[in-house]
Input
Amino acid sequence: MASPKKENSIQDVARIAGVSEATVSRVINKLGTVRKENRIKVEEAVRKLKFSPNVSAQRLAKGTSNSLGLVIPHYEGIFFSFFALETLRGVGIACEQLKFDLVLHIASNEKSFNMKGLGGVIFADILNNRMQVEEAISAGINCAVINNDPGDLKIDSISVDNKKGAQLAVEYLIGLGHKDIAIVTGDLSTQAGKDRLEGYKKALDLKGIGLREEFITKGDYSRRSARIAGENLLSLERKPTAIFSSSDDMALEVIQVAMEHNLKIPKDLSILGFDDNPQCIYAPVALTTVRQPLLEMAKRAVNLLVDKNSSSKKEVERITLPTQLVIRDSCQAI
Output
């Protein structure tokens, strides 16, 4: 009796094409991170071998599954948060393209959560859930974190340069002639919140503008905190001529507060945000902001996990994406 014909594998395609298994995986899954010449080589090898990928079998052979976990730390207003919703959308789109199931976990404390059966875990930032990250790493699960440079943790990360983005925003306001520039910070327990405050301080320092402590008002990314901060700033005897808010949600609330004080934006007060939430365009005044590529960060986190699951590559990757100043109508020169 003739032995059954051996089916070609992803390793065979990689060998014929002269590329890595991870590159073959990216081509098969139609990810846009492969050079054109390598994509052509893989496609020719697939045709030559008449290779038909069995994704489920590949994952099972590697001890993984077709389920990815997304862990989002709990904070006030999370289900109205642009960051949380955009992260969920980006991971969801990538999982849909790859035929993965997505398991969502809202982390409210340091308690463990069930990672059994997950092919990888994406952490949307690290707040009070570092223990969960360490547990996933110890369990040998491939992980990636978004919006955080995890320092000593051996985990892939994709973040933006929050400090540089905030510095860029404040330097723009200084360039318009503003010196009395206030900030509504983000949650200072987050890396992004601390980095944006540091960027604000650095911009003032580089331009020789003294730091006024009363111009630093603490927010937590919620509209409620922004309203309190806005009221406090506008009650000062020496009022700011410009306010940098560490998120667009907070900037939009500050605009609302300013209008309630009969101030015209940007004639009486310039306001600048961070995120590039689509709501910025439809605000009473189109908001100038710092764009961070949340959707790209989320998609690339999924791609990193796919690469790790489809190859023997174990090196930790740290990716930092640039921010971009988006100039609209909420700021003007003095």
